[in-house]
Amino acid sequence: MPRYLILRLVSIFPIALGVATGVFFLIHLVPGDPIDLMLGESAAVSDRAALRETLHLDEPIVKQYGHFILSLLQGDLGQSISQKKPVFNIILSRYPATLELAVAALMIAVTLAVPLGIFAALRHGSLSCCFKTSLPQRAHSVDYRIRSAMGRTFNRRDYYRDHLFMAGTGTTHDSRDLQS
After folding, report:
1. Which domain holds residue 120?
2. Which of 99, 120, 129, 165 would you label with 7, given CA atoms 20 to 30 Å apart?
3. Is residue 110 located within the same domain as residue 141?
């Protein structure tokens, strides 16, 4: 058991490095200039150059990656573009609600799992037992999680506002227009 625990703890580092590397390169795949988002397109050229130098965006991507990893190791997650506050502070401010939600989910899971487990043990081999034991397996399957994540993503009001309304016209897409 101690060997397994040590291996799991040591494996955190390559996994964290892989996730950080993936995040870094995904950020660079997003189209558009982050300077435009931060300052706006009407910003002065000197302001743009100063911010680009501050954020190390004028350096090669390898050096940018080095700055990114070094900042992460120091606990600096950067500034939020939209809220103009440190990302670490934003995460900390949301942490109590996240913890409350996790505890509530755990309580619901335990409240349902213990009685279902007792029932399944008492009626081992019956049809109702098979149903009750397969339900948690389906609930934890990867397919279910992907579908629920997609449902949460696409059931946002912003999605409907942005995708069902034509940009700049204020009119909705008409199904008759799509058929022609």
Report:
1. 95-171
2. 99
3. yes
